[in-house]
Amino acid sequence: MSDPVSTTLPETEQADKEFLDDVIAGLHRQPKQLAPKYFYDEQGSRYFDQICQLEEYYPYRTELELLPRVAKELNDYFHQQTSDGIHVIEFGAGSLHKIKPLLEHVEQIDEFTAIDISGAHLQSACAELKNYFPELTIHGVEADFTRPFPLKAEGRVHLGFFPGSTIGNLAPAEAVEFLANARQTLGEGSYMLLGVDTKKDEQLLHQAYNDSAGVTAKFNKNVLVRINRELGADFDLDGFRHEAWYNDAKGRVEMHLRSVREQRVTLGTQVFDFAKDETIHTENSYKYHPHEFEDLAAKAGWHAEKWWLADNQMFSVTLLRS
Ligand code: AVI
Asked: In angstroms, rounded to a whole number, what is the distance separating the alpha carbons of residues 66 and 309?
């Protein structure tokens, strides 16, 4: 019998304080900004799952189609490299759909740790995964995956897993810092498998982040709903409009919430004035050519061992070795 699904209790109060401090600091900045990690409360995670089902949002399904091919080749690769068991650590695990092809095809994986900021969502996803893979040891950890994280277990191969191009939501310098922290967490002789969205036709990018059903708009605005509910602010939800565009010079899609009129928002004793058309910058989604990503990973001390490109070139997966 394998271990039951284990969990770590959230440090709720500290997280609430950090959320409040970050929102206040971000809204005092010029231009105003909010960190994309705050999208993912329970409702936000549900909206993101809906985005992944949209025809226009190509990253999710393209990566999911690519992963079985990657996993089969990885199985051969790891058999050549080691006879040890493999412990996969997924950073920002969400709904745990992407891990399934790896668990199905990479025979040496016998332990899985899922780290995610949204605890409630993670626990149900871990319990569901346990139904599919009853022999697998599963740990669900509610934590900010961008920070270093203590991993016990010697004599095992650690394979970090960071699918979905979530790395693209970090600025390049933050991505290097994250990759360096992950390298430290995973330790000597470890590997890391990442899904990375590629640069492509601007129109396709525009459609992916401005879907016709308006789900991405709801996902974007949900951060204001959350700030109102959890921090007691008084954002008028009709006073802001979702916008997303490709910034070619920076190689990223930007998401913003644009104030439709001059308005004042209060949060406790704090007052934030918005000019008409002023925006809150809520997310960046960087796109990389595989060789650009290889260079970025090298700055964090990783060597790009292999990479795979979807047939339509719309998404890539890279295996790094420490
Ligand atoms: C999670 N992350 C990779 C998504 C992205 O495409 O940058 C978040 C997202 N934002 C809008 N749509 C999806």
From this structure: 8
* CA distance linking residue 173 with residue 281, whole number of Å: 18
Report how far ligand 1's centroid is from the alpha carbon of 141 (Å): 22
257-307 confidence digits (pLDDT tens): 999 999 999 999 999 999 999 999 999 999 999 999 999 999 999 999 999
**Residue list, ligand 1 pocket, CB within 6 Å:** 51, 59, 164-166, 168-169, 209, 216, 283, 285
**52-80 per-position pLDDT tens digit:** 999 999 999 999 999 999 999 999 999 99
Beta-carbon contacts of 114 under 8 Å, excluding residues fewer than 6 positions away, are 90, 93, 96, 99, 122, 125, 126, 129, 138, 139, 140, 141
- Which residue CA neighbors atom 1 of ligand 1 most closely? 166
- C-alpha 285 to ligand 1 mean position (Å): 7
